[in-house]
Design goal:
3-stranded mixed sheet, alpha/beta, 7-stranded mixed sheet, binds glutamine, 5 helices, globular, Rossmann fold, about 30% strand
Amino acid sequence: MRAGVIAVQGDVAEHVAAVEQAGERLGQDVDVVEIRDAGVVPDCDVLLMPGGESTTISRTLQREGIAPEIEAHADADKPIFATCAGLIVCSRDPQDDRVQELGLLDVAVERNAFGRQKHSFEAAIDVTGLDEPFPAVFIRAPAIDDVGEDVEVLATVQGRPVAVRQGAIVGTAFHPELTDDARLHDLALFEPLAAADA
Ligand code: GLN
């Protein structure tokens, strides 16, 4: 399987490590490529959209012609795992004109929803599909509002959705790649492929 990590900005190396770790644990060969130019996404089975700065990431994706390739990947129902800024970029409505969203997930998001002063916190949260709580790291994280009817909420914090799934796309407001726990990479990327093969 070939996994593409959108690498225009943000915490790319951590996602590369997490997807390699998930592959190792499942005994599956994974070829991980970092994507900075157009022409690579079409060869990928799954995509990861890291956290970082959603304004920068979204504009670069449009400028480099990568955005329409991600849209085609989503149209083909191939898995995408989008975290934090990646989730904002994938949303239908980032509620901020500086973000050039892709509109792949039928959610509105509020950037920096958990406060600017307290930039980061960690919480063990229950996630639908995982047996044990997940150690979720929130860094200037968005909250998810206004979830469309095709969107399943997988986890909430302070009563607000922070992990969702719609078809082959999973989005989290937090950073699963910053822990040693690759269960969400497994759930978002490997399980759908295994199900498609079965
Ligand atoms: N606050 C950032 C944004 O709005 C997201 C932060 C992150 O990805 N950790 O783009």
